[in-house]
Amino acid sequence: MSATIFRDTIFALSSGRLPSGVAVVRMSGGHVKGALEAMVGGLPERRRAEYRAIRSPRSDEIMDRGLVLLFEGPHSFTGEDCAELHVHGGKAVVAAILAELSGIDGFRHAEAGEFTRRAFLNGKLDLVGAEALADLIGAETEAQRRFAAANAEGQQTALYGGWRKRIIHARAMIEAELDFADESDVPGSVSSEVWAEMAALAKDIDAHLEGYRSAEIIRDGYQVVILGAPNAGKSSLLNALARREVAIVTEEPGTTRDLVEVALDLDGMKVVMVDTAGIRETAGRVESIGIERALERARRADLVLELIALDDPVTASFGDMPSGRLRVGSKSDLGTSGTAVDRGYDFVISVKSGEGLGELLAGIARRAAGATATSGEVLPSRMRHVELLRRCASSLRRAVDQENLALELRAEELRDAGFSLGKISGAVDVEDLLDTIFSEFCIGK
Hints:
The protein is of the alpha/beta class. 43% of the residues lie in helices and 18% in strands. A hairpin with a 6-residue loop joins strand 3 (50-55) and strand 4 (62-71).
């Protein structure tokens, strides 16, 4: 695909916060080569890093010395001529270079995600690949990295593209039957085979959608809420797991009023631990609000830790929870002896001595891993994908089930199904989605 012609050449710092050892200034657009000739005294060999003096085009003063790279379009990330200046990461150095670029005719600062947006518009990647790239940049754990990398390699695109081709083929067969039913070289009715295949595809999509919860856990984290009576040791446990003071701990009951979150990396999985207000009936107005927030968050959690202090085993009453639950006896250094099973708990811990904390974390990690066990399956990674896949499956079912409907109307349902799949990858018009998708990227990407 030929590159789309953009009037402006864009530039940005692509390497993150300053100061740093090295800073990378990226450029893309039709004026890149002219800027390089003015700033580094000529074009470097394509795709080869060359050490050059970087000068001000206006004063000819040397601003820095560094590596210069040129990537000619369409063989570049954006599909346009691109260049990178690898310079020292001092704030003044980078500011001087950016100021010089902004003074060149046709140059302007890039907006968030604009390099990737140009790559999409120039056919260098599709929307699924762009979203996977954003996930890869934002990945905090190994599981998130693997998930994003797999999607960036095109697994989702291949799956959805294959489904779309099947729908297009089915629609073509139905429309051929409509247009050429009286022709001798057109076989008999193919409708029964087409509708059977589309019914099977709708089931495949439904099964695929069931994996979204696993993808959501990978991206957003396995949610663990700590519930218990006041002074059960919830905040102390959170601080111990975070290895820093994130929650206030006092002997006064009801210290925690709002939700306090900490993200942990357990065996490559993101796990979000949530400290909550102590559950009790005699609470003031503000504390009651905190308790209600705690219960509401627990209802949406993947796992609830019911914490009970062994020196004062008060069991908080919070009813049934749709999520899994582990009973954890806390303050074992103050309680009675015996194993966790002997005492009726899944785990027994002491924040003070460290007893049981490793076992508790291992237990949480096992549950988190179990919640995302997909055996390498391709998963829908965004709610946008889920909504479009549901729309596609609904259109397929309407086409299959409405046997008394005119054949051309059933074919129109197939067109809608294919259109929904095409919107996932950007194979059809998605202009209304572009600003939202690419605004998630940082400047310089």
